[in-house]
From TrEMBL:
InterPro entries linked: DNA-bd_dom_put_sf, HTH_17
Residue stretches making up the Helix-turn-helix domain: 12-59
Pfam family, one: HTH_17
Protein name: Transcriptional regulator
Natural source organism: Novosphingobium colocasiae
Region ranges (Disordered): 63-85
Length: 85
């Protein structure tokens, strides 16, 4: 019997590997985490990890077919967003 997790690679990535997958610097991903603008993450013990599915879902928010395509979501820059009011 095969387990898919054992053969498909890691299910969770730590910040440096997650940033590399997304084409970002680890510091940028840390800023996204602090500001709440990045992908969903988990704390396992004292470690921050990202599920591959969550990284892909976050990146997919920026999918566009053209510059005029509004898309389905927004990937915000890694900075504090103004309060909505």
């Amino acid at each position: 019997m095969h387990t898919s997790a054992a053969h498909s690679g890691p299910r969770y990535l730590r910040t440096p590997d997650a940033a590399k997958l997304l084409g970002l610097s680890p510091r940028t991903l840390e800023k996204h985490r602090c500001y709440g603008t990045g992908p969903v993450f988990r704390r396992l013990g004292g470690r921050v990890v990202y599920a591959l599915d969550d990284l892909e879902a976050w990146a997919d928010l920026g999918t566009r077919r053209s510059t005029s395509d509004p898309g389905v979501g927004t990937v915000y820059p890694a900075k504090r967003r103004p309060a909505e009011g």
